[in-house]
Amino acid sequence: MNTPITPITPATPATPAISAISVRGVSKRFGDTEVLHGIDLDIPHGQVTCLIGPSGSGKSTLLRCMAFLEEATAGTILVNGQPLGFAEGAGTGLDAGGGPRVRLPEARIRAVRSQIGMCFQQFNLWPHMTALGNVSEALKTVRGLKKADAEQRAMLQLQKVGLEARAGHYPSQLSGGQQQRVAIARALALDPKIMLFDEPTSSLDPELTGEVLNVMRALAADGMTMVVVSHEIGFAASVGQRIAFLDHGRILLNATPQEVFGKPRHPRLDQFLDTYLDRGAAMLV
Amino acid sequence: MNFDAALVWSLMPEILRSAGVTLGVWLFGVLGAVALGFVVTIGRRYGPRALGIALQAYLELIRGTPFLIQLFLLYYGGPFIGLSLDPVPAGLLGLAVYGAAYFSEIFRAGFEAVPPGHVEAAECLGMNRAQTVTRILIPEMTMLVLPPAVNMAIILLKETAVLSIITVPELTFQISAIGSQRYAFVEAMFLLACFYWGLVSMCGRLGMAAESRLAKFRFAHS
């Protein structure tokens, strides 16, 4: 039952060339529709990378591939240099060249995945557990910690997101913003090296969006490697250090916010941003 | 026609004893049906394909035929295949096998109603399948199925009346017997209806109490 995950040491931690996540030629097909067309993307360590783009551009699918919630149809994803889910060629895993992809064993997938924490648009808290229960659950079941130890650590995480007073509340007794902060604490409790956020504020009203973004800002300031799919262009522009703009399953732009949002702008991005400016959100660079 | 209250009163001890039998077979029958139904659901969800097909056939057989006929075949037909049971065990077995088919479908729907994201969250945190099923899926499914499961238990309570055909000395059997002996059918049936109604309301109350205790676990809104 309790299988403590052996910590993964990055293959060659000294080499700065290794990205936190390296996406190589990833395609994703749902039936007849290909939603990602051979994506290449590097997520640098200690930075916030924002994936922006119109609905249906494939940004959420790309993020879900990085969490191995979707299995890419082709290509590989390396997490700190280690293949996630599939390895190219037989065994080596780092050989980007030919050879058929092989699916790695479940335990191996779980081990690589343990470096990644994920937050969802719908929070996905478990309704039958309190905030403390949600945060401490995986510490007990996955890490094998004793209940008291797990809860003590969970409490520290809840403090970080400012919700220690709500530890005994069930999700249905919390606001949307509080639920998302608990979900962030739940992911952080397992000490991930990389945090993925899938539209973390899209189901929140503007008033509650702020409290979640503040938690994310603090996390970024701590040097957490983050990948954020967001419609919060303002957050992307102010907190993001890399912006990747996707359209129709391809990355059109991948640069710093200044380069992406500054003039002259890519015409497709201009068109996309216009919809925001229409809504009076002229907070862009 | 006169309603003979004195007659009813004089027969009360006998009637109460049979009400106890009804309550007993219902309680154990439901427990058996829930347990068996759960096993069937798990077998269909996680078992090998062949098992799934066999269980599907069982469901269709049970749901496609009347309980009365199933019970009759079990009790009077059982001895031909070497299954000779006394009335009460036969009734319990029949009730459990019959109810399990329906409970199994309720549980299946419950499992399917758990938001996939709740399972994905567990997966992302490194929980394995067994942990995800026992810690997340089963508890959430249980909350979701409570109202239809209580409903099913109430239906089974009334189905216990069918056990009278295999001479289980429960309410319907005893009160009908009294009705025929004393030639007081209306009194007997009226009394019978009152008893079932009382038992069903009690069961409904228990269900409501359970639901309100679980209310705080209800799915959160964003």
Task: Give the topology.
The complex is a heterodimer of chains A (285) and B (222).
Chain A: E1 21-30, E2 33-43, E3 48-52, H1 59-66, E4 74-79, E5 82-83, E6 86-88, E7 101-103, H2 106-113, E8 116-119, H3 131-141, H4 147-160, H5 176-188, E9 194-198, H6 206-221, E10 225-229, H7 233-239, E11 242-247, E12 250-255, H8 257-261, H9 267-278
Parallel strand pairs in A: 3-10, 3-11, 8-9, 9-10
Antiparallel strand pairs in A: 1-2, 1-4, 4-5, 6-7, 11-12
Chain B: H1 5-10, H2 12-46, H3 49-64, H4 67-77, H5 87-113, H6 116-124, H7 129-159, H8 171-182, H9 185-213
Please report the two chains with the greatest interface, counting residues with C-beta closer than 8 angstroms to the partner's C-beta: A-B, 37 and 26 residues
When the domains of chain B are counted, the total is 1
CATH architecture descriptor of the domain at 44-69 and 108-278 in chain A: 3-Layer(aba) Sandwich
Mean pLDDT reading of chain A: 86
Proportion in helices of chain B: over 70%
C-alpha Rg of chain B, in Å? 21 Å
Number of strands of chain A: 12
Oligomerization category of the chains in this entry: heterodimer
How many DSSP H or I helices of chain A? 9
Structural class estimated from helices and strands of chain B: mainly alpha
Q: What top-tier CATH class of the domain at 44-69 and 108-278 in chain A fits best?
A: Alpha Beta
How many H/I helical runs of chain B?
A: 9
Sum this structure up briefly.
The complex is a heterodimer of chains A (285) and B (222). Chain A is 33% helix and 23% strand.
Description of the structure:
The complex is a heterodimer of chains A (285) and B (222). Chain A has helices at residues 59-66, 106-113, 131-141, 147-160, 176-188, 206-221, 233-239, 257-261, 267-278, and strands at residues 21-30, 33-43, 48-52, 74-79, 82-83, 86-88, 101-103, 116-119, 194-198, 225-229, 242-247, 250-255. With 285 residues, chain A is of the alpha/beta class. Chain A has a domain at 44-69 and 108-278: 3-Layer(aba) Sandwich (Rossmann fold). In chain A, the strands form 3 sheets. Chain A has a 6-stranded mixed sheet with strand order 8-9-10-3-11-12, sandwiched between helices. A 4-stranded antiparallel sheet of chain A has the order 2-1-4-5, covered by helices on one side. In chain A, helix 3 (131-141) runs parallel beside helix 5 (176-188) and helix 5 packs parallel to helix 6 (206-221). Chain A is globular, with a radius of gyration of 19 Å. The model of chain A is unreliable at 10-15 and 91-97 (pLDDT under 50). Chain B is mainly alpha-helical. Chain B has a single domain, classed as MetI-like (MetI-like fold, Orthogonal Bundle), CATH 1.10.3720. Helices cover 79% and strands 0% of the residues of chain B. Chain B contains 9 helices and no strands. The mean pLDDT of chain B is 88. Chain A binds chain B through residues 1, 3, 5, 67, 69, 106, 110, 113-114, 116-118, 120, 122-128, 137-138, 141-142, 170-174, 176, 179, 183, 186-187, 190, 203-204, and chain B through 115, 117-118, 120-128, 130-131, 135-136, 139-140, 143, 216-222.
